[in-house]
Amino acid sequence: MPTSEDFAAIWLTLKLATIVTFLLLLIGAPLAWWLARTESWLKGPLGAVVALPLVLPPTVLGFYLLLAMGPHGPLGRLMAFLGVAPLPFTFAGLVVASLFYSLPFVVQPIQNAFEAMGDRPLEAAATLRASPLDAFFTVALPLARPGLVTAAILGFAHTVGEFGVVLMIGGAIPDKTRVVSVLIYDQVESMNYERAHWLAGGMLLFSFCVLLALYGRRRNGRNG
Amino acid sequence: MADGAIAARFRLAYPGFALDVDLELPGRGVTALFGPSGSGKSTALRCIAGLARAPDGLLKIGGDVWQDEARGVFVPTHRRALGMVFQDASLFSHLTVKGNLDYGMTRARVTAAEASRDALCEMLDIAALAERWPDTLSGGERQRVAIARALLTRPQLLLMDEPLASLDVARRLDVLPYLERLRDELDIPIIYVSHAPEEVTRIADEAVVLDRGRVVARGAPLDVLPSASRLVEGGRFGVVNALKARVVAVDDVYGVTRLAHPAGEILIAARLTQREARVVMRATDVALATSEPRDTSVRTILRGRIEKIDATESALAFVTLTLVGGDRLVSAITRLALDELRLTVGADVFALVKSVALDERGL
Questions:
Q1: Which of A113, B59, B106, B303 could form a disulfide with B66 if both were Cys (CB 3.0 to 4.6 A apart)?
Q2: Structure pTM?
């Protein structure tokens, strides 16, 4: 049976994924909007940076984030300047790291949705007296809803499933940074296979359900 | 510049395309921008809407300056009091018909009385569609909702970019009468972009012909379209005449209607219920004879005098007649026939129109 230790890890994981997904939608929507509509030369480089976590080993990302958050890194100095505790090995540090790690999974579906709708709905909105900001909220976002839902599901699921970056930034402090994937690792390390099964099996089921929801939604059509 | 008139000057160059127009458009009625695809007519319209920006453009409407680059003025689209209807209607699919209609109205801060809103919906026959979603509408309904949505913002100017082009022929005939009613009942200028001569002749008071980014002709549709129609594929079939005539009798035995026109009797292959009709006849359905033909199946024979001959480089010639009574009628015949009959300006001729080419769809 799962123990209170397991439930603490599950709770922490869900909390992390929820906060990260929420923040990523806030950051990702404007970023995706900019990437979808800009003609600036920065589009290529910035798009590539956003996509980096897709190809980099989590250890590389974790290593540089650790340096950046360290006492001599830019994020670390910023935190010191603001009088906030250093980020490494804290929950806040995990959130920051996850934001980078899951960014492409949120930005890309939204960007695709914005690109697919083209300019016409916004032009129509402009001829109906909607300012660009107004049109973004009342036309672009509602029309991009399927992309936003996909982005939220992928961002959430991907944050739940992260391991390498978490281990490097957060370690395995119970109730603070020991998420499910890390706890599974610990259990396997200590040969507690039965307890690892509960969590690993749960993750498997969870991931399957998420993907089923995602692909079922796509098959069921446009309005999802 | 007359009150409400429009002055527009745009020069714009893309690779392989240049627009260079300087237009004074009337402050009322329907002005058509006619030309083949790539002639710059839609680009000119987009410049007027502010959706495209010509680097040294100038645009004045009535007393308002919407663009004057020399003085650094460019009013963004959402601050221009215009309405625009796009080729594909562009209704917002996440809003109902009512939501679409309200979208512009609330933003334009129009306090249109419910009555005038209802009247417009009534006129466009969309009152019953309010709760429907755009997905569930026919192409013609969608376009009518788009027109209402644009008009409900109480624009100073209505722009229409090929509003019928995405509809099939039957739907086009559905929407056309609504456009004719709008033309008759609105008191704002309408700029209507089209590559279909038939729409231009039926709707526009004036036509501006564009080709390769330049204005090549302008005038009353029947004056400029015969020669301009060669610019578009199949354009000759789109040159149409419209004659007003009074219904005299409906022949129930044969199912035809007789109408009186000063130039002669017009027979229509349909039973009409109205007292007066606007009969639309294609130039390609009008034949010419130098003497009154007797042994022919053609039942509609109108008398007139040749006013103008436009011989194209192709096989075709357009002959414009002044009919008895003053109406004008364009006939498309071959250049061969023109020469063999020795038709010249000033000659008296008979125009022959097959009645089966005339039915209620064209009214």
A1: B59
A2: 0.82
